[in-house]
Amino acid sequence: MKILVCLSNVPDTTSKINFTDGDTKFDTNGVQFVINPNDEFGLTRAMWFKEKQGATVHVATVGEASTEPTIRKALAIGADEAIRVNAIPTDGYFVAEQLAEIVKNGEYDLVIAGRESIDYNGGMVPGILASLSGMNFVNTCISLEIEGNNATAVREIDGGKEKISTTMPLVIGGQKGLVAESDLRIPNMRGIMMARQKKLNVVEPISASKATDDVKFEKPAPKGQVKLVDADNIDELINLLHNEAKVI
Amino acid sequence: MSVLVYTESENGKFKKNAHEVASYAYEVAKQMGTTATAISINANESESLGDYGVAKVLNVSNDRLKTFNAKAFANVVGQAAQKENAKVIILSSSADTKFLAPILTAQLKAGYVPNVVSAPESTSPFQVKRTVFSNKGFAFTEITSEIKIIGVSNNAFGSSENKTTATVENFEPSLGEDLFTTKSIEIDKVVGKATIADADIVVSGGRGLKGPENWGMIEELAEVLGAATACSKPVSDLGWRPHGEHVGQTGKPVASNLYIAIGISGAIQHLAGVSSSKVKVVINTDPEAPFFKAADYGIVGDAFEVVPKLIEKLKEFKAQNA
């Protein structure tokens, strides 16, 4: 089985978000970049397939050279080979088209991408990629088993979950649940040393059009002061929620 | 050239978000000088969408579409868009719709912008405001493709009645076998209880509750309020509560009218995930907890004393206001 894990390079979840250049650009100053958490759950599941079912695991990202530390981390965790498409990931459609080209050339059975990246939250790359590549697709996937050519996946739905059966080739939009938080791996020294020897292929983007353009950003309005209610005066809280906030 | 809206239903009944996206489609259509057409699949009483400004409903009734199937449903919406020559398509933010949206996007070579929080800033050029960085910011995004798909955030635009008479037309999409290559085997869903996605009120517990055995009062409070239950990330990582209840940046977003955080300190990731909720209440022993900076109302106190009192007082309140 040949697996491609798609990685997005995103600000660490604790990052404070600021904008620059007249609020037209995300300010990367002082921001620590990491593997998108939803992708990392998928990468860890892919490692399981490698160890238990002999899968080969490649990782791919669309990004400039500055994303390479993130890719090296995936190699240090255990991916066999990496591909970087040398382009700024302008929008979801553009990224999906670049990845579809890699899928076409790599003959992958299974593609795992995060259900969304935590920066632009588009949530569209896995689905568009599946459609462009003519592969089956399961989104918000929280469990995945592969047996021969058959896949059994569980996806999260509003208020519950759904078990789905399908076949490969398959694209997964993954998230927490594919593996548990405690299963995530921190690269060890041996992994980091080995990652230096592994192939990181840089390819130029294919021509693709983008469909959307972020023209300006804005930060949320600052929050007003909290109204404190005394713990012995619950009636006051109910009064405020009923008469002032009108939510009960 | 009408604006097309996919109005979701479950067991024949329109979901709450169907009314919200219909109201949104009416607003966009008005801005563009056209009308809104809904595509509805196996829903009863489709004409009721007229209450929310929908002028026409394409009504699909087909047993093969009894269970949600993303590829097939996306294809049906796509066929409806082609039939209506629609250039703007409005979708909700439900799990099912976010599943079908990218498939539809590829099918129509469209530009798709999800998490949109308000009516378009302008329709020429077509610009919308959406959340980015998991609610830590907003982007004003221009859609430059010919066909535009907008995913409206839950509970952001709201439903508004715009009474009109909807004409209902039966629509029979062609459904090839190739659309059914993923099969639903089993659906495990809580029935008769509010879900985090569509609840008006969400009651959420954190590590301050000390252990899963103490969730009885959270569930009781939720029941009194008709609320959904949720939890913070550490609580789901510790296995105290199922993953499906985890709300925050890497869990589910919450956009309820009221969010009550109990024993949750308010890590930046958690606050990002719940920031779309309209009113936030925090109950925590630590007055320095970051959640107090993000909340509208707060009680500094021990959850084990405050919550039972709150349940009791709410029961009295409900009895008086029933």
Annotate the secondary structure layout.
The complex is a heterodimer of chains A (248) and B (322).
Chain A: E1 2-6, E2 9-11, E3 19-20, E4 25-26, E5 33-35, H1 37-53, E6 56-62, H2 68-77, E7 81-85, H3 92-106, E8 110-114, H4 125-133, E9 136-147, E10 150-157, E11 160-167, E12 170-174, H5 189-197, E13 200-203, E14 212-218, E15 227-228, H6 234-244
Parallel strand pairs in A: 1-6, 1-8, 6-7, 7-13, 8-12, 9-12
Antiparallel strand pairs in A: 2-5, 3-4, 9-10, 10-11
Chain B: E1 3-7, E2 9-10, E3 13-14, H1 16-32, E4 36-41, E5 54-60, H2 70-84, E6 88-91, H3 95-108, E7 111-116, E8 122-123, E9 126-132, E10 137-143, E11 148-152, E12 167-170, E13 183-189, E14 201-205, H4 216-225, E15 228-231, H5 233-237, E16 258-262, H6 268-274, E17 279-284, H7 291-294, E18 297-300, H8 303-321
Parallel strand pairs in B: 1-4, 1-6, 4-5, 5-12, 6-11, 7-11, 14-15, 14-16, 16-17, 17-18
Antiparallel strand pairs in B: 2-3, 8-9, 9-10
What level of helicity do the residues of chain A show? 25-40%
Characterize the largest beta sheet of chain B: strand count, sense, and whether it forms a barrel.
Answer: 7 strands, parallel
Biggest beta-sheet profile of chain A: 9 strands, mixed
Structural class of chain B: alpha/beta
CATH architecture of the largest domain in chain B: 3-Layer(aba) Sandwich
Total helical segments of chain B: 8
Backbone shape of chain A = globular
Count the domains of chain B.
Answer: 2
Task: Provide the residue-averaged pLDDT of chain A.
Answer: 97
The CATH homologous superfamily of chain A is named HUPs
* CATH class type of the largest domain in chain B: Alpha Beta
Helix content of chain B: 25-40%
Which class of secondary structure composition applies to the elements of chain A?
Answer: alpha/beta
Protein name (chain A): Electron transfer flavoprotein subunit beta/FixA family protein
Family (chain A): Belongs to the ETF beta-subunit/FixA family.
InterPro entries (chain A): ETF_a/b_N, ETF_b, Rossmann-like_a/b/a_fold
Keywords (chain A): Electron transport, Transport
